[in-house]
Amino acid sequence: MRRTAALLAPCLGTVLAAAGLAACAAADTTPPAAPAGLTAQAGSATSVHVMWRAAAAADGVTNYQVFQSGRLVRELPADRTMVDVTGLTPQTSYTFTVRARDAAGNTSAPSAAASATTPAARAEDRQAPTAPARTAARADGPRTVTLSWSPATDDTGVTAYDVYQGGIRIHTAGPGETSTTLAGLRPDTAYGFTVRARDGADNSSPDGPTADVTTPPSSEQRPDTAPGGFTATASPGAVTLAWTAPDTGRPTSEYELHVNGRPVTVIQFGAGAVPAGRVEHRLTVTEPAGTVWELRLRARLPDGTWGAFSERQRVVLAP
């Protein structure tokens, strides 16, 4: 397994202070493998949706670089494997490639190219498509689901269908498609998928009906998705959290913190700073000393769902 070192620099939208974490490792000069499974689908007259398969965890990928005709247009953290490239010209063909980069700065060879042609623009199109009237899902195995939907209608024509799970877009299909295969799911897990239609002006329909499906158990041992070894230590004006990132096959960049049974914040790690192994994070607190907190933590998984909760930790805020 390749080993890399990364700098932890969490970013929060609450009164939280970042804590640094660095690891030392031997010089790493081996580049990751080139991303595979690249696809490009025009989503509107001025945008193309680009997707690819996630790198193996052993590659230590920290971010992806998206190129349009050899020009870098986007950089994404390792947990993102899709992007909308916007600001394009209608009725134009575009070619995309993706490179993977690890924490040591090694960059992969470019992926195989994928091309898409944007449709013609429709002036002053403000009418959204209708929502797909029917949606159905069938589990094909512990990690794969076939999702199907009925066609939507639009005054200027549907250009794409977007699949959502838990409010997060996880896939985009072409205008002539009414089904797709969703892979990389978890065994023995309940899912709810919805589909929205999109037109050439990027107007999106409401959600179609939710398609509920439960994947069957796997003969393999189901991975533990809970953060491990969760601890909470109080000090004056702060609580320091520590945990071990779950092994979900991809780096985990997002954790949801619950205090006294309620979600209070999402801890997010930016591009190039997604931690692996042991993680520390310091919370700045303003509540009175003696306040009792019961804390739990869970990770956002690659399929968009939240994983299992960590063990509960009880802490009394220090004076």
Question: What does the model show?
Answer:
Helices cover 0% and strands 44% of the residues. The protein has no helices and 23 strands. The strands form six sheets. The chain has a five-stranded antiparallel beta sheet with strand order 1-20-19-22-23, with no helix packed on it.
Relevant terms:
319 residues; globular; mainly beta; four-stranded antiparallel β-sheet; five-stranded antiparallel β-sheet; disordered N terminus
SSE series: EEEEEEEEEEEEEEEEEEEEEEE
Shape: globular
Mean pLDDT: 83
| Approximate helicity band | under 10%
Structural class: mainly beta
- Figure out the total of helices: 0
- Main sheet properties: 5 strands, antiparallel
Number of strands: 23
Low-confidence stretches: 1-26
Strand-residue fraction? 35-45%
The largest sheet has its strands arranged as 1-20-19-22-23
Q: What is the structure about, briefly put?
A:
By secondary structure, the chain is mainly beta. It has strands spanning 10-11, 16-17, 39-44, 47-51, 61-68, 71-77, 82-85, 93-102, 114-117, 135-141, 144-149, 158-165, 168-173, 179-182, 190-199, 211-214, 228-235, 238-244, 254-259, 262-269, 278-284, 292-299, 313-316.
SSE diagram, text form:
Layout: E1 10-11, E2 16-17, E3 39-44, E4 47-51, E5 61-68, E6 71-77, E7 82-85, E8 93-102, E9 114-117, E10 135-141, E11 144-149, E12 158-165, E13 168-173, E14 179-182, E15 190-199, E16 211-214, E17 228-235, E18 238-244, E19 254-259, E20 262-269, E21 278-284, E22 292-299, E23 313-316
Antiparallel strand pairs: 1-20, 2-21, 3-4, 4-7, 5-6, 5-8, 8-9, 10-11, 11-14, 12-13, 12-15, 15-16, 17-18, 18-21, 19-20, 19-22, 22-23
